[in-house]
Every structure is written in C-alpha cells, then in structure tokens.
Write a structure and sequence with these properties.
Length: about 325
C-alpha cells in the first residue's frame, strides 16, 4: 500500500521531498512555541553576495554520540528583541537538544548589547562555564540562534567573549541553504500557502503564487537568504525573493518586483528562528503588502540539526592540531 499523506497543517502533516531530511517527520514538523505566524530564477534584481557553505564535509559533522568529560558547553546565544527571548522557542530548542544529547552541558543566554549585568546574559553564562572547567581549557561553543548573518549579534558576542576571559569559540549555523529551504517549505505548507508535495501532484488549494523571505540582520542576511530563496523556488515552482525587515531591499520593494512579474497573491515567510525578529514588525510588513504570513522557523527539526552541526564543527576543529 502506498504511503498516506495528510493535507492538514500541523505536526502530523505531509512528508516533503528533499536531499536533506530531518531525522524524523515529527521532529521536522515541530511548531514554534508561540506567535503567528531569492530571488526568482532569472531575476535581474541585485542582491548582496552570499557566502555559501555546504552543510556537509570532513570539517563539519553532527554532534558526537558520546561527548568527552569536560567537553565545552553549548551556549545558545539569543539576539532577542524582547524580554522573553529565552522562553518559548528557545526553551523548546534547548529541551530537544538536552533530550537528544544527555551529556551535553547546554545553556541559553541573551546577547547583551547594552553590557548591563544580567545572570542570563552572555558574559555571565560564559564566565560560569569557564569557572567549571580547568584553566585554559575550551569552555564553551557559542552558537548564535540565527539562520542568516547578524553582524550586530556577532560583534556583541566577540566583545562578550573577550570581556569574560573565557576560552570560547563561536559556531555558525547559517549558509546551510538546502535545510532552510526545506524548513521554510514546511512552514508555508503548514499555513496552507504552498503545496505540501508538488512531485506527487496532490490537489491542494494554496493562497499564494509568490513568496517573500523576510530576514533581519541587514544586507548580508538578504544575500544569504537569496540562495535559500532560489532553492525554495525550485521546490515550489513559484517565484521567491528575499527581502529585509531592517535593511534594503525592503519587503515593499520585493512585493513591487513580484507584482511586476504578474504575481497577485504574495505570502511572507519569515526566514528567522523567532526571537531575533519583532513579531509586530513581521505582522506590519505582511499587512503593508496585503500578504498572508507563515510562522517563523521556530524549533523546526532542521534548525536543531543546524545547531548540532555548528557545535560538532567547532569540536572537530578543537580536536585537529593547529586549529
């Protein structure tokens, strides 16, 4: 009997084709904790250049099944725009990582741009991780909870590491575009804004014929998301463009370009985990162009996989002499 697929949105929805699948369907379709919620091939729109890094290779590996005693802590650093950045989605991601990796010393911290004293701030968390390990030993791998470049967050992290005196490294989860394209496809399908499986040609009514990926972090984030948008366009057979909530090109500019191509029903897909973007800004951007909006990526299985890959990559570098 052929496999059965659901066309209803939610945690038990349809499977999706793709070269990089989550470990399980349930993990892949995990919903965000709270909140609602490329450029088209051949487009002449100018976008910042993306730095494309493949998710595989001998210098990049998943988190080891067994961690050595005293392994560096994994610190999820959240560039939160609100006071509850460590709750909701962040807490859900941390819970899954702890369950999957019981030996992992996992901490969450807010990236403190203002430098104020805060026990949940990145400086305090780094100092505590260093105090629990031998002097000079690698104490933490800091993974910013973002999926596109976020220069302000990375500057703040480098300053915090220097100020704390911790022997910490920064791991990056962005530029792994195939996994992000798949996750965005899931979120759009969950909201009824994209076909769940175009290969099998299910008869599913969708309410969008063009997609805008909304990013935060400036023009570099748009450049990275443009590569993801190209891959998502191939999955959906729809025009997909990347735009920014805080830089150029704006959501309105991307919408105007799509409308010039004949697109009449635009959907907004937040290419963010969640806490790094203002939910009100996402809602306002969607309303300004008359678009429906998918949910942020949240605790999607591919986001969790990318965090594990970032931690494993840094561990492999620490184990290689001369790195």
């Amino acid at each position: 009997m052929p496999p059965q697929f659901s066309t209803e949105p939610g945690p038990q929805g349809a499977e999706f084709p793709g070269s990089a699948q989550p470990d399980t369907d349930a993990l892949a379709r995990r919903q965000p904790g709270t909140g609602p919620f490329a450029r088209q091939p051949g487009s002449a729109a100018r976008q910042p250049t993306a730095r494309l890094i493949a998710p595989g290779g001998r210098h990049r590996r998943p988190m080891p099944a067994s961690l050595p005693e005293g392994a560096p802590a994994l610190v999820l650093a959240v560039p939160s725009v609100g006071e509850d950045g460590l709750a909701g989605v962040t807490a859900e991601i941390a819970t899954v990582l702890r369950v999957d990796n019981p030996a992992l010393d996992l901490r969450t911290a807010r990236i403190d741009h203002g430098g104020r004293s805060d026990p949940s701030g990145i400086r305090a968390v780094l100092a505590d991780a260093a105090a629990r390990r031998p002097a000079g030993a690698p104490s933490a791998v800091v993974v910013p909870q973002v999926v596109t470049p976020h220069p302000a967050a990375f500057r703040a992290l480098r300053e915090a590491i220097t100020a704390s005196g911790a022997n910490a490294r920064i791991g990056e989860v962005f530029n792994t575009n195939a996994l992000l394209a798949e996750a965005l496809h899931h979120r759009l399908a969950d909201a009824g804004l994209a076909r769940a499986d175009r290969v099998r040609m299910f008869s599913i009514t969708t309410s969008a014929d063009g997609i805008i990926l909304a990013t935060v972090g400036g023009e570099e984030a748009v450049g990275t998301a443009s590569v993801t948008a190209f891959l998502l366009a191939a999955r959906l057979a729809l025009p997909v463009m990347a735009a920014s909530l805080d830089a150029k090109p704006t959501i309105e500019e991307a919408a105007a370009q799509l409308e010039g191509m004949g697109v009449t029903r635009i959907a907004l897909a937040p290419c963010v985990v969640g806490p790094e973007a203002d939910p009100a800004a996402i809602e306002e951007a969607a309303a300004a162009i008359g678009a429906k909006c998918a949910a942020p990526l949240g605790a999607h299985g591919n986001v969790i996989k990318l965090i594990s890959l970032a931690y494993g990559q840094v561990l492999s570098q620490l184990e290689t002499p001369g790195t």
